[in-house]
Amino acid sequence: MRARMSHLSMLLMILAINLGMAGAANAKSAAGTVILATGESWRLSTEGRTPLSRKASVYAGDHLITAEGSMTLRMQDNAIVNLQPHSKMIIHAYQPATAEEEAAIRFELTQGTVRTRTGKIGEDAHHRYRLDTPFAALGIRGTDYTVNLNGDALSVYVYSGGIRLAPFSDTLGCIQGNLGACSTPESADLSANDNAWLHLQRGDSIERISGTPDFISSMQSPPVFSTGLHDTHGKVLTPTATHEQVLEFVERDDVLPENDQTAPPSTAKPGMDLEGLRDVLMLDPSGDTDGDGLSDEYELANNLNPWLADMDGDGLRDDIDPTPNQANTHLFKVDNRSDAFTESQIRDYLRHTTLKLDAYDPVASHSLYNLQLKLRQTLTLNGWFDLDQQRLWGKTGSIETLLAARYWPEGLLWEALPESFGQLGASAEGIEWLTALRADQVSLWQLEQDRHSIWFTPGSGPAGEGTQQFNTRWVQSLGNPAGHGSMAKIRSFKADANGRFQIEIGTQRFNYNLRGAVGEAGMLFAENDYLSVKGHWQGNTLVVLITEKSSHQQWMFGLQQTGMDDSPLLAQWQTRNTNGVTWGHWADFAHLDEDKLAQLSRHGKTLAYNRHYALEVMPANNLPQSGRVQFALSDASAVYASKDGLRPAEVINPMLQVDFDQKRFVSRFDVTAPGLDNAIAIQGAGSFDDNGQMHSDSHLSNAQLEGGLGPNGDSASLLFERDLDDDGYVSGITHWQ
């Protein structure tokens, strides 16, 4: 009995193994993936009807259907297939060549419109590619094309490459279900250079028509299809020696929106009763003060600005801006394909110069998916890598383009970088960081100042203790916005890891002596009325970006620690003047102490202050008695404080409105700092007295605001401070005109 059971168990095990192997052999690999789905779309398969959304897989045998929306697929060989609204298509086959089988791609369009850009399988085996319709077959020669099927009418348009269209004919050997183009006396070829399209009515011969068909201009084309600058019909413009250049969109599937959102998402209501506060907040009774299509209540609850229709000033109203509090996020970063570099050219650049790459930054007009682009400016990418200290620096837009290139399908630049730096002697740790940077697996903090930035991965920070001396290793003149440069020289640079540094610099105009702060993660920052300094200290090296405010000249310096200094760096008070108003802070942005406040308040001066800034408030004369005035930000200074130290901060999206009838004001802006994922919203509303002194109302504000109006009420200065949930806070001052 035991022997029989043993044999039976063995047979069952063998049967289970065979079934498992058969199941594995029969498991289908995905033909492609949905990278964008808008509206309703489905898959019909042997398992029934299944809704499709982004990241869903599609397989050979699937019947794909769209309703009001469209569906975009990235196939396994990086081909792109876009199925337009009210369309039906079958994927009959999609497989690469193997040792046993040839490659095969066959689609069948039974209704609607499809646009396809061929991938590697189609490029390598176009004789095994076919798109069938109910009465005609289409083959390719490496192509980006669109087919429109409307009942018994078939139209074909080619963006690049070429196609061959032929009506089915058993007599001539063009049979539905075969692969490759049909070469018959009735077939017709079409290329992108023909300036024409093909039209076929069932039962008739193929007609060639000049121009562009109407269905092309009405298509919903996703951004992944843009291979260049397009005309109003979606036709790629040919590069010339003048202003037209071939462009390529950045593609990164995981940041595409799940679907179109025509209405704002539901959210919690603000913790205040707007009905009783509209007057004091200067809100319109209509409920949409700025007329941007979003209610005041919604905007207050979502850290938006109910007083400004375009909060970030990027030209898009808040109701249609995907990121209303972040300017320029609707821009696509692109590369200049006409000057693309080969791997050998990149290596040559890295050996003999710094890395350079021409790039362009076009603006998508008013819609994330609008392919009508206009060239805004030409960027020259000058990027410098310091792999050992895990940082890079250069022109802000250019470095953003370089970082965006990590997601380009071509990837040539980032494919070549690790090997190229390795040949130049880069350390294994540096190459490892570069590889992780390409995979977006390390954090990057950005120190931005006007047109240039320093990007770095937070590390161990400064090395050593005590006051250290640094010498200049290199300097680069970055010029002014007009492109005119001048030289500068750092005569002395001292820093200590306890939070202070001192710099002496000579420009063609003046000599300056400035002290500043060494903050969290080795960030350096300092400012006065003449200079602004930002930098990064990692190990025993520094990279420092300096801006001369009067000339708008910028310089980048590389410094290295060369010795020690016995003299400690002492605290220094920084007196500032903006719009005729006196204010100040410690040079290292340290906390204000009672002794300093008492000293500043001598001679009966009225002082407003927060943790880091002090403001002399003077009585304002000749204030207007009526009217509502909108102010513009003229200057600001701010810091973000965490448990690990200070970071320099920036004020963005500013708004100040003053109602002289009610003697009330309301202000709204955001504060950003390196390493923060989201901006910190500052909102304050309050009143001012006959002398123009301004105080926020805690019931109407999420931060403390205090300051005063200037003479004649044509300027204002406001201190602000907001405590955050993570024991951090932001502190700063704003000046308005």
From TrEMBL:
The keyword Cytoplasm does not apply. Residues 1-27 form the signal peptide. Residues 66-163 form the FecR protein domain. It comes from the Bacteria. Coiled coil: none annotated. Keywords: Signal. This is FecR family protein. It comes from Marinobacterium halophilum.
